[in-house]
């Protein structure tokens, strides 16, 4: 994809799909129209130049493509009427508590009729423009499995005639779990190298906090993302080399984001209604409190992971807890915990295991674990770090 078009795609794909879904009420038609618009941009922008308002150009072109297609399909008279309405100026905006198109689409996709994983996957596809392979990696499932989930989710929306409309105030709390999962996965995908997705997740998180200020998990998620984002300036060298948390120059952390995140964590603590995002935010707040890696209060972090395992147990949480165990009880107890987990497809599992084996002096096994981690990540910075760690080892 040409550079100018790629930048617009990353920044505006989700917005364009959200706007078109609101106009059309049809996911497939909206996606196809936006994709057609970007295909047209690839063909015309290299000669004519990027327009002054590229997002508006994409949305207008996509809308026109959709109208043309609807008018060609003479057997779909109702769609003809819809297409004619799209040309009508001054169409009043739909009223409701959610005014942002992208946030509205997230709430729409997170309808209770869909399974939670389908809600998350579909919204990542529509809003983030993520490929099926990227979404499959986020869920730790094979790509064909995720492709089937996306097809089924769209079919469910179509067959059940789930409306594309703003949820009422009373519906918002029932949708919040899937919405938060979507926003956090968008953030995580962005933290792997796409700053635009991180910025979008933070924007949506702030909107959610304004919309639902009394939902502790909403505040917890925003705090969590702020505290993680604060470390971005120290996460890589100017050459793109990954720097792990323990080795980061903490003076480069963004103190304003840390202060905001910590204030939100304290707000959650006062409410005393703990949830998974709040606990993860508290863990990151402990990290941000430590002036050096050596000063980190790992016992407090382990206690928080114990609480997280009680509330929301998962193999990934158990893996992260094992890292805290390694810092409090040593690498062997941690390795025993890691070896009991079923996370073979997850690169971080093998990376943690490799580090523990290295600390135990088991070089040959550590090399194999690093190789397994390298084979399971397509992030260039992570792969480069893992390759350097592997090269440092002399097999026994």
UniProtKB/TrEMBL annotation:
Q: Which superkingdom, per the lineage?
A: Bacteria
UniProt domain RNA polymerase sigma-70 region: residue ranges: 9-74
Read off the Pfam families from this record.
Answer: DUF6596, Sigma70_r2, Sigma70_r4_2
GO MF annotations for this entry? Answer: DNA binding; sigma factor activity
The keyword NADP belongs to this UniProt entry's keyword annotation = no
The yes or no answer to whether the keyword Transcription regulation is present is: yes
Enumerate the spans annotated as DUF6596 domain: 175-268
| Keywords for this protein | Sigma factor, Transcription, Transcription regulation
GO BP annotations listed? DNA-templated transcription initiation
Domain named RNA polymerase sigma factor 70 region 4 type is located at 106-157
Query: So what family is this one in?
Result: Belongs to the sigma-70 factor family. ECF subfamily.
* NCBIfam families linked: sigma70-ECF (TIGR02937)
This one is known as RNA polymerase subunit sigma-24
What gene, per UniProt, encodes this protein? rpoE_6
């Amino acid at each position: 994809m040409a550079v100018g078009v790629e930048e617009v795609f990353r920044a505006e794909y989700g917005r364009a799909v959200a706007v078109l879904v609101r106009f059309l009420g049809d996911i497939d038609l909206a996606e196809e129209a936006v994709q057609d618009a970007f295909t047209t941009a690839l063909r015309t922008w290299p000669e004519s130049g990027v327009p002054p308002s590229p997002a508006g150009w994409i949305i207008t072109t996509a809308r026109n493509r959709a109208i043309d297609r609807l008018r060609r399909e003479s057997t779909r008279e109702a769609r003809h009427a819809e297409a004619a309405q799209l040309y009508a100026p001054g169409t009043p905006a739909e009223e409701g508590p959610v005014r942002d198109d992208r946030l509205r689409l997230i709430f729409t996709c997170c309808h209770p009729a869909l399974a939670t994983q389908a809600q998350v996957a579909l919204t990542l596809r529509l809003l983030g423009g993520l490929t099926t392979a990227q979404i499959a990696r986020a869920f730790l499932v094979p790509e064909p499995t995720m492709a089937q989930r996306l097809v089924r989710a769209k079919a469910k929306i179509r067959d059940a005639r789930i409306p594309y409309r703003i949820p009422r105030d009373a519906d918002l709390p029932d949708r919040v779990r899937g919405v938060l999962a979507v926003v956090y996965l968008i953030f995580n995908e962005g933290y792997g190298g796409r700053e635009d997705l991180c910025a979008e997740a933070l924007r949506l998180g702030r909107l959610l906090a304004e919309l639902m200020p009394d939902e502790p998990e909403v505040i917890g998620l925003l705090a969590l993302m702020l505290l993680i984002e604060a470390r971005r300036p120290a996460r890589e060298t100017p050459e793109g080399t990954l720097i792990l948390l323990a080795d980061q120059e903490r003076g480069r952390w963004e103190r304003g984001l840390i202060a905001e995140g910590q204030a939100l964590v304290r707000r959650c603590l006062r409410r005393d209604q703990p949830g998974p995002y709040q606990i993860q935010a508290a863990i990151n707040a402990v990290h941000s409190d430590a002036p050096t890696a050596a000063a980190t209060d790992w016992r407090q972090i382990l206690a928080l992971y114990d609480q997280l395992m009680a509330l929301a147990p998962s193999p990934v949480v158990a893996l992260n807890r094992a890292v805290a165990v390694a810092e409090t009880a040593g690498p062997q107890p941690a390795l025993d915990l890691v070896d009991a987990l079923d996370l073979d497809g997850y690169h971080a599992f093998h990376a943690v295991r490799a580090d523990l084996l290295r600390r135990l002096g088991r070089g040959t096994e550590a090399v194999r674990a690093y190789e397994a981690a390298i084979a399971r990540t397509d992030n260039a910075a992570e792969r480069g770090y893992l390759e350097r760690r592997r090269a440092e080892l002399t097999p026994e």
